């Protein structure tokens, strides 16, 4: 069974990051097969350079989903779509 990985990029002491974490963890309880990874921009120079002005950033399977504020309804819709596409992959082309 495929899983969806959410990556929350932020830093300690960031109130928006705390708010985002609360939204993400709340929405995650409604879905199976979803995991959360947290990344700290203070511990990763590349992430710091890329996202310092945008945290928190939420990635869904490595793609930017939201910056600054996480909308729970938008996240639910994305996770529902992800669950549909991963549980019903496109049919393989028949080789002749």
Question: What does this 3D model show about the protein?
Answer:
This protein has a four-stranded mixed beta sheet with strand order 2-1-3-4, with helices on both faces. The chain contains three helices and four strands. Helices cover 39% and strands 24% of the residues. The radius of gyration is 15 Å and the shape is globular. The chain has a single domain (4-87), classed as Glutaredoxin, CATH 3.40.30.10. Mean pLDDT is 89; it is low at 88-96. Strand 1 (4-10), helix 1 (15-28) and strand 2 (34-40) form a beta-alpha-beta unit. The protein is an alpha+beta fold and 96 residues long.
Instruction: Give the overall average pLDDT.
Output: 89
CATH fold-level label: Glutaredoxin
The CATH top-level class label: Alpha Beta
| Share of residues in helices | 25-40%
- Count of discrete structural domains: 1
The biggest beta sheet reads:
4 strands, mixed
Instruction: Tell me the structural class.
Output: alpha+beta
Euclidean distance between termini CA atoms: 29 Å
Keywords:
4-stranded mixed β-sheet; Glutaredoxin; 96 residues; disordered C terminus; 39% helix; alpha+beta; 24% strand
Indicate the topology.
Elements: E1 4-10, H1 15-28, E2 34-40, H2 45-51, E3 57-60, E4 63-67, H3 72-87
Parallel strand pairs: 1-2
Antiparallel strand pairs: 1-3, 3-4
């Amino acid at each position: 069974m495929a899983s969806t990985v959410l990556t929350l990029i932020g830093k300690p002491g960031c109130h928006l990051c705390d708010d985002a974490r609360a939204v993400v963890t709340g929405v995650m309880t409604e879905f199976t097969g979803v995991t959360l990874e947290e990344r700290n921009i203070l511990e990763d120079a590349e992430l710091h350079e890329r996202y310092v002005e945008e945290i928190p950033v939420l990635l869904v399977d490595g793609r930017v989903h939201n910056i600054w504020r996480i909308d729970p309804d938008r996240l639910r819709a994305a996770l529902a779509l992800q669950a549909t596409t991963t549980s019903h992959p496109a049919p393989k082309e028949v080789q002749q």
